[in-house]
Amino acid sequence: MTGMKNYETVKVEKENGVTWVILNRPEKRNAMNPELHYEMLDVITDLETDDETQVLVLTGAGDSWCAGLDLKEYFRGLADKPKERWRAEWASHQWRWEKLVLFPKPTIAMINGYCFGGGFTQLAACDFAIAAEDAIFGLSEINFGGIPAGIVSKVLADLLSYRDALYYILTGNNFDGRKAAELRLVNYAVPRERLREETISLAEQLKQKNPNSYRICKQAFKMVRTMDHNQAFSYLAGKSMENRFSDPERGREKAFKQFLDEKKYRPGLGTYDRKS
């Protein structure tokens, strides 16, 4: 990141190719106010082309991941400011979905505590999610006469079964990290004391992958989910060609040579030797 910036609501920390983006309003359980959306949009945009960032981990300060929207700042603070409210909503959607869902590098949501309401959007946008077993998840909007914010209902329809999504949207009941893993909302849950260690372990594995291939595999999978089979066939053929001709590493050629000619690489047992 060129020239580290100082933010009021976000912290950015870098360590061995892993960039930790930390929502930093612990006194509000990292609820998202307009300033956080503006700062996060700036952070995500900068990190897209940051050479130091090989993997992005999104987490929260304190004992919360994200408690959703800051209701007071949104619904009271911007009640008579339609332009400012529109601007905040635009920034919110940009960083949490338009930017994050197709971020060109691996993304991991490290759920260290409370994850409520609008926080489900950025959870769904990340490629992977690891939760503390005692993290608490909830969609409490039904309890105060609202509906899940933004596109939360859509991302839950994509991630959860029909019955499970409706159950938690319509009851407002909470569930923990173990249940989140059972529901497949997260990849897996671990004891809180192992959460950072497990996240780093996954990040180290992802750092070994060919960056160009990773980016295109991600784009291909996420885009074809809403296509019919004929559209997907044509789109994926194009992405395959893009991968071959846009990769500065020439990874496909290296892997084929190591597997077919040199007999020193097995695709099912890890990444090819990218340094050779």
Task: Characterize the structure shown.
This protein has 11 helices and 10 strands. With 276 residues, the protein is α/β, with parallel strands linked by helices. The strands form 2 sheets. The protein has a 6-stranded mixed sheet, with helices on both faces. The protein has a 4-stranded mixed sheet with strand order 4-6-8-9. The two termini are 28 Å apart. The model has no long low-confidence stretch (mean pLDDT 93).
Keywords:
11 helices, 276 residues, 2 domains, alpha/beta, 2-enoyl-CoA Hydratase, Chain A, domain 1, 46% helix
List the helices and strands and how they pair.
Blueprint: E1 10-15, E2 18-23, H1 34-48, E3 55-60, E4 64-66, H2 71-76, H3 82-99, E5 107-111, E6 114-116, H4 119-125, E7 128-132, E8 136-138, H5 152-159, H6 162-171, E9 175-176, H7 177-183, E10 188-190, H8 195-207, H9 211-224, H10 229-246, H11 251-261
Parallel strand pairs: 2-3, 3-5, 4-6, 5-7, 6-8, 7-10
Antiparallel strand pairs: 1-2, 8-9
Helix pairs in contact: 1-3, 4-5, 9-10
Number of strands: 10
Annotated CATH architecture of the largest domain: Alpha-Beta Complex
CATH superfamily of the largest domain: 2-enoyl-CoA Hydratase, Chain A, domain 1
Which fold does the CATH topology of the largest domain refer to?
Answer: 2-enoyl-CoA Hydratase, Chain A, domain 1
Q: What fraction of residues sit in β-strands?
A: 15-25%
Please give the count of helices: 11
Secondary-structure-based class equals: alpha/beta
Enumerate the strands of the largest sheet in spatial order, edge to edge or round the barrel.
1-2-3-5-7-10
The description of the largest β-sheet is:
6 strands, mixed
Domain module tally: 2
Rg, rounded, reads 20 Å
Shape label = globular
Mean pLDDT: 93
CATH class assignment of the largest domain: Alpha Beta
End-to-end separation: 28 Å
Order of helices and strands: EEHEEHHEEHEEHHEHEHHHH
